[in-house]
Amino acid sequence: MEAIILQVLNGLDKGSAYALIALGLTLIFGTLGVVNFAHGALFMMGAFVAVTVKRLLGTSYEVVDETRTDFLGNPMTIDTPYVVSWFGESVGNAMVDWAVPLSVLIAIPIMAVIGVAIERGLIKHFYKRPHADQILVTFGLAIVLQEIIKAFYGANPIPTPAPSAFTGSFDIGQLFGFDPFAIMYPYWRLVYFGFSAIIIAAVFAFLQFTTFGMVVRAGMADRETVGLLGIDIDRRFVIVFAIAAVVAGLAGVMYTPILSPNYHMGMDFLVLSFVVVVVGGMGSLGGAVLAGFLLGILQSFASMSAIIELVPGINQVIIYLVAVIVLLTRPRGLLGRKGVMED
Questions:
Q1: Do 46 and 105 form a contact (C-beta atoms < 8 A)?
Q2: Are 268 and 146 in contact (CB under 8 A)?
Q3: Least confident segment among 5-19, 58-72, 73-87, 243-257
Q4: Closest by CA position to 108, among listed 318, 250, 314
Q5: CB within 8 Å of 255: residues ≥ 6 apart
Q6: Domains of the chain by residue range
Q7: What is this entry's stated membrane topology (predicted)?
Q8: Which site in 61, 63, 114, 259 is 20 to 30 Å from 46, CA atoms measured?
């Protein structure tokens, strides 16, 4: 039972990232009809926003400390972050420690601007082009973006730790009545799951309960009719693209303590997220979230040593096997609309 609970938690952790990225992908496909292969790059760029903020807050200068000496008796120099000298020791050190959560606030406007720039500068010219053209141009954009990141930050992963308050593990087993330390789970992974749930709920609430969201949902169902009503649906869709970019970027920001950012992490998540979208149903927001968590849990269980010994390599292909089965039996996906990805 302990192993089952642990694998479910691992699956929810992976599924949170899959669901957030797939949610943005589905939002773009459902509104704009664009297959955006650059969406994984937005996830990567969000992660590197956190890296940049961490570096900027940690920028320091040398200060001579007369109270400390080296082995020769000379005063030692210590590195002092500028934010410590500007805001005081307690506030400055807290800002450096909490760089990743602070990056969320900075990433929102940055990712929104990037999203609008990509949509206005490139995507809008391919609305009426075949999906093959959209895939090629957005995949090329993703390669360009990751090479830019590689040029500025290098090819090696960059560790970006979580705040010290969230280091260590939580004894989650006691919540289920197990012995102490039976099920330990990292604090930050629990934080990431909670953060993902809040973002997903916020997106659905925005689309469901606001006038803007209702217009967007109407546009997803029948774009021409909404346009005939005199509503500038194109302008609203630009905002939707920006929202999707923000969601992907925030997913990347908060994932940095779990997976050290590197220039190809966007591509790693992109393929899996597209599989999630197809399994959930192209254009179905609920299907994307449901499939993200389900496939995350399946992948987690398939990674158990007992399962790998029984079926070697199953953890590498389980998601694709599920996708094949779903497409053979239900081409529209679990919650997809009739006629989408289906004859």
A1: no
A2: no
A3: 58-72
A4: 250
A5: 17, 43, 47, 192
A6: 2-48+108-329
A7: Multi-pass membrane protein
A8: 61
